[in-house]
Design goal:
The protein is of the alpha/beta class and 294 residues long. The chain is 51% helix and 17% strand. The protein has 2 domains: 1-83, no CATH class; 93-283, no CATH class.
Length: 294
């Protein structure tokens, strides 16, 4: 039932973003986000607050509620933008999206071994991939998990196809990912959620949890470049693609030790971003649970 409700809410948002100016689409998105927070999404809301309590252990309930509500509202805006991407053109990206250190990406492609863009559920993570694909004209793949509902899956496939982003699924043949990197393409991966349950232990906000080990193993196996980045929403709903320096491949230790160090570097990067802008971290599940849950 909950997935049916989510589907129809997404359909409402998709329709409104197609027929209304963006500012009215935002308004509807915020109402849907409030409905989710207060009424339809109690489990995800409470998980979000538990995560925020780890980030801010001394914060009271009022602070946790404030941050959680803004996460929901920013997530609603993200969905509004996602369903409107087919309407965005070079003028939109040129006006509303800026990138810090664009030369870093170009330098990585010149190596000819492909690029992993390692990001997180932070800000509007889709707009970074769309920027590189639609505005920069780069070959972009997104590694994604399948939606639990076939209806939602079809909806998300259609929207990503409009962005000229090729989809790779985490349960597909991994040779497809290797081939994309071999073709010197970009593979965008969200590295803050471990849907397989086989992640590598890292220290995150002073507590142990698990992050996916796939990005590290891909980089070690292929020698491709890996750069960390987030699409950070500004107060005026513009974005900056905040790219960090390349994650250097560890040279000492066993392969498992290299994987852990590589992944810890990403966890440290993300922790810094969340401390600065917690309202942009859309973690609607218990991050520090032993087992990943939908």
């Amino acid at each position: 039932m909950k997935y049916s409700i989510r589907y129809w809410l997404f359909k409402l948002l998709l329709f409104s973003t197609r027929v209304l100016p963006l500012r009215y689409g935002y308004w509807i998105a915020l109402r849907i986000a409030d409905f989710g927070y207060f009424i339809a999404d109690r489990g995800r809301r409470e998980a979000l607050k538990r995560n925020l309590h780890v980030v801010f252990p001394d914060a009271g309930e009022q602070r946790l509620v404030y941050e959680a509500r803004w996460i929901y509202r920013n997530w609603g805006k993200y969905l509004c933008e996602f369903f409107r991407f087919r309407e965005f053109d070079e003028n939109y990206f040129g006006k509303h999206v800026s990138i810090a250190h664009p030369e870093r990406v170009a330098a990585l492609f010149r190596r000819g071994k492909g690029v992993i863009m390692l990001s997180a559920h932070f800000g509007n993570w889709e707009i970074g991939a769309a920027y590189f694909s639609l505005y920069c004209g780069l070959p972009v793949n997104a590694l994604v998990a399948r939606q639990v509902s076939p209806q939602l899956e079809k909806m998300f496939i259609n929207e990503r196809a409009a962005q000229k982003i090729k989809l790779l699924y985490i349960d597909d043949d991994p040779r497809k990912i290797y081939q994309a990197l071999k073709n010197n393409e970009m593979v965008c991966i969200l590295g803050d959620r471990d849907p397989t349950g086989n992640g590598v232990p890292v220290n995150f906000f002073g507590r142990p949890c698990r992050f996916p080990q796939g990005p590290a193993r891909l980089a070690l196996a292929t020698g491709c470049a890996v750069i960390m980045g987030v699409s950070r929403r500004l107060s005026n709903d513009n974005f900056i693609l905040d790219l960090d320096t390349e994650i250097a491949l560890p040279t000492a230790g066993t392969r498992d030790e290299k994987v852990r160090q590589f992944t810890q570097n990403f966890a440290d990067f993300l922790e810094e971003k969340i401390r600065c802008s917690p309202e942009q971290w859309s973690a609607f599940y218990d991050v520090w649970d032993a087992e990943w849950r939908q």
